Amino acid sequence: MKEYKVAVLGATGAVGQEMLKILAERRFPVSQVRALASARSAGKRVYFAGETLPIEEATAESFKGMDIVLGAVGAGAARAFRPAIVDAGAVFVDNSSAFRMDEDVPLVVPEINPEDALRHHGVIANPNCSTIITMVAVNGIQRVSPIEAMVASTYQAVSGAGREGIDELEAQIAADVQGADVETHIFPCRIHKNVIPMIGDRLENGYTTEEMKMQNEGRKILHNAGMNVCCTCVRVPVIRSHSISVQLRTRDAISVEQAMEAIRLAPGCVLAQNLDGRDYPTPLDTSDQDQVYVGRVRRDLIFGDRGLSLWCCGDQIRKGAATNAVQIAELLTK
Amino acid sequence: MKEYKVAVLGATGAVGQEMLKILAERRFPVSQVRALASARSAGKRVYFAGETLPIEEATAESFKGMDIVLGAVGAGAARAFRPAIVDAGAVFVDNSSAFRMDEDVPLVVPEINPEDALRHHGVIANPNCSTIITMVAVNGIQRVSPIEAMVASTYQAVSGAGREGIDELEAQIAADVQGADVETHIFPCRIHKNVIPMIGDRLENGYTTEEMKMQNEGRKILHNAGMNVCCTCVRVPVIRSHSISVQLRTRDAISVEQAMEAIRLAPGCVLAQNLDGRDYPTPLDTSDQDQVYVGRVRRDLIFGDRGLSLWCCGDQIRKGAATNAVQIAELLTK
């Protein structure tokens, strides 16, 4: 069995550390793993497969001899390192938003469009986290009948803002319990005992970059260029699973039973039937897992017999980011 | 100026105590205030206008001589006491769901349909909390052009489950910080660091009683029998303000600017423009207030030029319950 030299770029962040964990957990066939980060972290160590790896400073030289680079850095750093990675002959599986909409870059959710991964030119993009979770949830329905329109309101965990987002919620909780001042640094305002309807940067049309990803990336993943998505992204005080309330209209009529069966059969998707006696998932039910849970499947009350309403949850750091990237890397080994 | 004898039925709960606070705050013209509750609480005292009132056990005799009874008890108790209240000649302004859809009972949001209050036969119903907040938010738009369809996903505070709901979240936070077991009694599962997409009882169509109130009560309040509403109700770890993500389709085309102007002019409604530099409200911005805040008004991406998307927040205990009831009582004094 061939073994691969894999580098994780951004190995100190929440997603980078989870990538290392998942490479080990899924026994990805590695002959070497390098943990790369900024100069600031060089010399520290990170866990991998029961040992620790030294963090090396990422430079243009870091990628020589590597087969696969898993990117867990921001869009700016991803753009800066791309030429060096591609020149080194490695495949760059990038979690940032930098290349997702580029025509020559596949945008892949392995349960949905694995074949796209094989058409890469050195870069494969990992989609936005809420988008991955929502698309895995609706993929089964889309296969029964194309989705024409979707309304999505998200309930997004603080892990979406990285390790600092998690730390900020925990610090605010601690301060509040101690009666101390609650400080805000990462989010636009306090998130403890609050929700914030603003994620990403605002665009001309009033939506945010984060909200438009659900439509733009969703179309590319599902190969459904005509799908319109109206999304509202909201941060909630939850650690690491995102939830999404979805209403959709398909091209053809579809019964609730058909939809539930399609969800049950869809890869990576679990129809919630008995979670401690509940038939709907919550973020806590789905944390530290790779599957997307779907519940509350019912006839939508606006779109008639082509309309469905559902609720889905999935771990943002795992399926929404690190696991999906490792799954893409697995496609390259087949 | 005429003064009124007012009883608060259920004076020990979160809403009942708030009703007493708001009667004093708004200088409702009272000559007498009685605080009624179950036998269990009789003898205790509650705050009113800088003093305390004794809690009296509510019996069929309690309402004699009263002009107005503000009800903050469950539907069962409301049904049980209704005959005694009406026989005593008092007007029953009831916050429970018991009578809201009865044809001879007005369902009133004073900023929207105050005239309905005057057609009462002894009982006036206070609508569901999320419904009040959403209808105040969309009332201005509805006056420009009738709303045909609405999708609503809620972010509901724990106060919607009463004092016990607030206590449960606070206890779970404290237990978690101390590393103790987090216990769940009121909600179907843990709410701290979680969200729960299930409020109310499940109906045949898969929706909950709470979700169908948005459509059924919304139609009655807006006098818009044809409005279809697809609602998903979700509990979030927030203390006392509800938020709602709303997408709607009006009968006629309406511009975003027209909609914003309509919201700005709508009674009880604030178009968020500068909340600490933000142009959208969060639950914390709107707690302990009576106004409903609206933000993120934008063109919906599904319904074309008849579609709008918006976000609104309002205090569940105040405008969603106690203040609205006291405002209804004020209509009776005019």
Which descriptors would you attach to this protein?
334 residues; globular; homodimer; 24% strand; seven-stranded mixed beta sheet; alpha/beta; six-stranded mixed beta sheet; 31% helix
Summarize the model shown.
2 copies of one chain form a homodimer. By secondary structure, chain A is of the alpha/beta class. Chain A has helices at residues 14-25, 75-87, 114-117, 129-144, 163-177, 209-222, 256-265, 283-286, 318-332, and strands at residues 4-9, 30-37, 45-48, 51-57, 68-71, 91-94, 123-125, 147-155, 228-232, 241-250, 269-271, 292-299, 307-315.
Description:
The structure is a homodimer of 334-residue chains. Chain A has 334 residues and is an alpha/beta fold. The first copy, chain A, has nine helices and 13 strands. In chain A, the strands form two sheets. Chain A has a seven-stranded mixed beta sheet, sandwiched between helices. Chain A has a six-stranded mixed beta sheet with strand order 9-8-10-13-12-11. Chain A starts with a strand and ends with a helix. In chain A, 56% of the residues are buried. The interface between A and B is large, with 54 and 54 residues.
State the secondary-structure class of chain A: alpha/beta
Using the CA coordinates, give the radius of gyration of chain A. Answer: 20 Å
> How do the strands of the widest beta sheet of chain A line up side by side?
3-4-2-1-5-6-7
The assembly state of the depicted protein chains is: homodimer
Cα end-to-end separation of chain A? 10 Å
Assign an overall shape of chain A. Answer: globular
Largest sheet of chain A at a glance? 7 strands, mixed
Helices and strands of chain A, in order, run as EHEEEEHEHEHEHHEEHEHEEH
Q: Biggest interface pair, residues each?
A: A-B, 54 and 54 residues
Number of strands of chain A: 13
Give start-end ranges of low-pLDDT stretches of chain A. Answer: none
Beta-strand residue percentage of chain A: 15-25%
The portion of residues assigned to helices of chain A is 25-40%
What is the mean pLDDT of chain A?
97
Helix tally of chain A equals: 9
